[in-house]
Amino acid sequence: MTTEAIIETNPERAAAHQRMVEAVLFASERPLSVDELAERLPEGANVEEHLSELTEKYAVAGVNLVQVAGKYMFRTAEDLSFLLRREVDEPRKLSRAAVETLSIIAYHQPVTRAEIEEIRGVSISKGTLDVLMEAEWVRMMGRKRTPGRPVTYGTTENFLIHFGIESIKDLPGLQELKAAGLLDSVDVALDKMGGVPSRRSDSQEDDAQIDLEEAIAASERQVTDERNQHRHSAVSDMSQDISEDGNRENTDG
């Protein structure tokens, strides 16, 4: 179903429709698209206009109406998120291998397991992909038209929702990651000069844990209009430096 531009001439009816949009979004457990909202409202409702007005209305409220993965949802205002954190927080932890694998999939999708291993410079265990798929951040996208027809992997809508980005194009680029302190400029320069990462095994990395939410949040705070620049060259460096930060934190602890 595709919505067309609709002009609502009855102010009272338009106000009623906007309240309906607001109520449906508030009650929904997941983000909703324009078409999904239109299906639940009376015929003639200008859903897109109501969404635009509600977005503006809630921009200065304690909760914001945001667009994520092409759909709409209410979310706590970013500057108030600290009020909702519990005294004892148990963040989701991922191994260094899982973080690197997720980063490669996000920036290179659709990508095969062999391609992931080539970029990382080490083989990955099936358990690493299983963890990411169980978290519903990664999914099988299909099969590559090459000998053996290997499975390709990509990120999911839940990945976008969890990290609060509208589309995969909004992932931070090299400059944003460097500005957030997630990349070491010296390491990046050495890599461009031909530096080769040392080979590792997943078994040596299983104990290296990091808080992925903190890492992504830090990078997003520094995101600028320079999105998508040098995305492919950033992946290996991003994964290495994020994990090294996690190792230093564990040592300090």
UniProtKB/TrEMBL annotation:
What GO biological process, any one, is recorded here? cell division
Q: Where is the signal peptide?
A: none
| InterPro entries in alphabetical order | ScpB_csome_segregation, WH-like_DNA-bd_sf, WH_DNA-bd_sf
Ranges of biased composition (kind: Acidic residues): 204-214
Q: Which residues lie within the region annotated Disordered?
A: 194-253
Q: Which UniProt keywords apply?
A: Cell cycle, Cell division, Chromosome partition, Cytoplasm
Q: What Pfam family does this protein match (any one)?
A: SMC_ScpB
What name does UniProt use for this protein? Answer: Segregation and condensation protein B
Q: In which organism is this protein found?
A: Kordiimonas sediminis
The lineage, from the top, is: Bacteria, Pseudomonadati, Pseudomonadota, Alphaproteobacteria, Kordiimonadales
